[in-house]
Amino acid sequence: MRNEKDDKIKILMIEDDPEFAELLSEYLAQFGMEVTNYEDPFLGISAGVGKYDLLLLDLTLPGMDGLEVCEDIVKKYNIPIIISSARSDINDKVESFRLGADDYLPKPYDPKELHARILSLLRRYNKNGSKNEPQSDYEIKGDTIYYKGEALQLTPAEFDILSQLVKKQGITLSREQLINESKVMSDSSQKSLDVIISKIRSKLGNSKAIQAVRGVGYKLI
């Protein structure tokens, strides 16, 4: 966590173009942002992600695709992620958001726009100015979900559904989305979804934790 006496915003960048990384680093430094770049994604992942305020991530990286990096970091850390990529395929953009990225900035772009997006995202991500602190009673670590610090004993289907709701807490997810993005549920599991939601509520000890949105789906409140 950032020292309260240190006003600098610490940004982790994983970008294999050193000249582009240097350009962004020098520009953002004018605004009190300290950028640490890793050209190797494996080094970036092991760089102590939790000590940074934001991740700026390229997709085309040596040895590991940026989408894999995004997925790995989202599972382990609560950190805002901006994808910075020259890949223009709409599927890459959609997959980035599905995996948990917060913003997608296609290259080339003006560093001024990046600066503005960073400030906007940090304001929305944590209004009290601290960073990487859980914004709810839920935390996902690997294949375990913790509720108020206690590990929940969930079936694979319950884990799939609750993890989706945790990652999009406060946002209504359609029944189709919850089922289609589950690794263990089939397309014909509409009724099964209601049963799973009921069991999750029971394990949370809170029948109001997951709200049914009529005609749409569910959201975690």
Tell me the layout of helices and strands.
Elements: E1 9-14, H1 18-29, E2 33-38, H2 41-45, E3 54-57, H3 66-76, E4 81-85, H4 90-99, E5 103-106, H5 111-125, E6 138-141, E7 144-147, E8 150-151, H6 156-167, E9 173-174, H7 175-180, H8 190-204, E10 210-213, E11 217-220
Parallel strand pairs: 1-2, 1-3, 3-4, 4-5
Antiparallel strand pairs: 6-7, 7-8, 9-11, 10-11
Helix pairs in contact: 3-4, 6-8
Briefly summarize what is shown:
By secondary structure, the chain is α/β, with parallel strands linked by helices. It has eight helices and eleven strands.
General description of the model:
The chain is α/β, with parallel strands linked by helices and 221 residues long. The protein has 2 domains: 9-125, Response regulator (Rossmann fold, 3-Layer(aba) Sandwich); 138-220, Arc Repressor Mutant, subunit A (Orthogonal Bundle). The chain is 39% helix and 20% strand. It has helices at residues 18-29, 41-45, 66-76, 90-99, 111-125, 156-167, 175-180, 190-204, and strands spanning 9-14, 33-38, 54-57, 81-85, 103-106, 138-141, 144-147, 150-151, 173-174, 210-213, 217-220. The strands form 3 sheets. It has a 5-stranded parallel β-sheet with strand order 2-1-3-4-5, with helices on both faces. Helix 1 (18-29) links the parallel strand 1 (9-14) and strand 2. Residues 1-5 and 127-134 have low confidence and may be disordered.
